[in-house]
Amino acid sequence: MANRSYLYSANLGADGTVTVISGISECRGLIPVSYNALLSGEPRVVPSLIWDNPEVPALLGDYAQGVAAFERMLDLLDPSPAVAAARGLLETHLRDPQVMGTHFLLEPGEVFVLVEDPFADQAQQLLDECTGADVAASLATYVNREGVEEHLGRERWATALYYAVADAK
């Protein structure tokens, strides 16, 4: 089994309770830049829903703002088949009412354990990468330089992930 990062759609209750709606995507061995864009809407660190360890964080970001940032990032990328496929993903997957929630939830713990840095430091670095004046433009510059296929989610985008949170549909 490879270590994965998991992206879910979720709703945030008035009491701060996070309830997962659906799986969105998973990626083996890394956290793709596409996840950063999707998390960039008012991101914050929250407790993990899949790890039974209070030191392992998850990240939560506004769903609608994240989709808008992802779309803006795609607009700034050099044209390619991978960018075209990601645009299709927006319509067929991320805008599907059965999948949409109020927030995205990223569970990066399996990837975090691959690095010796403390979980809190890794979460803060990821949070920093998801915030800023124009996150979409910064991420697009990085993706154009480093490789589109790798960072647009070379893994599958699906509602059924390797690790399914118990309260998801």
Tell me the layout of helices and strands:
Elements (H helix, E strand, L loop, with lengths): L3 E9 L5 E11 L4 H7 L4 E4 L9 E6 H14 L4 H14 L8 E5 L1 H4 L6 H11 L5 H12 L1 H4 L18
Antiparallel strand pairs: 1-2, 1-5, 3-4, 4-5
Helix pairs in contact: 1-2, 1-6, 2-6
Strand order of the largest sheet: 2-1-5-4-3
Helix content: 25-40%
Secondary-structure element string: EEHEEHHEHHHH
For the largest beta-sheet, the strand count, sense and barrel status come to: 5 strands, antiparallel
What is the SS-derived class? alpha+beta
Beginning-to-end CA distance, first to last residue: 24 Å
Q: Based on CA inertia axes, which overall geometry fits?
A: globular
Rg computed from alpha carbons, rounded to a whole number of angstroms: 15 Å
Task: Figure out the total of helices.
Answer: 7
Explain what this protein looks like in three dimensions.
The protein is of the alpha+beta class. Helices cover 39% and strands 21% of the residues. The chain has helices at 33-39, 63-76, 81-94, 109-112, 119-129, 135-146, 148-151; strands at 4-12, 18-28, 44-47, 57-62, 103-107. A five-stranded antiparallel sheet has the order 2-1-5-4-3. A hairpin with a 5-residue loop joins strand 1 and strand 2. Helix 1 packs antiparallel against helix 6 (135-146). The chain is globular and about 40 Å long. The relative contact order is 0.27. The mean pLDDT is 85.
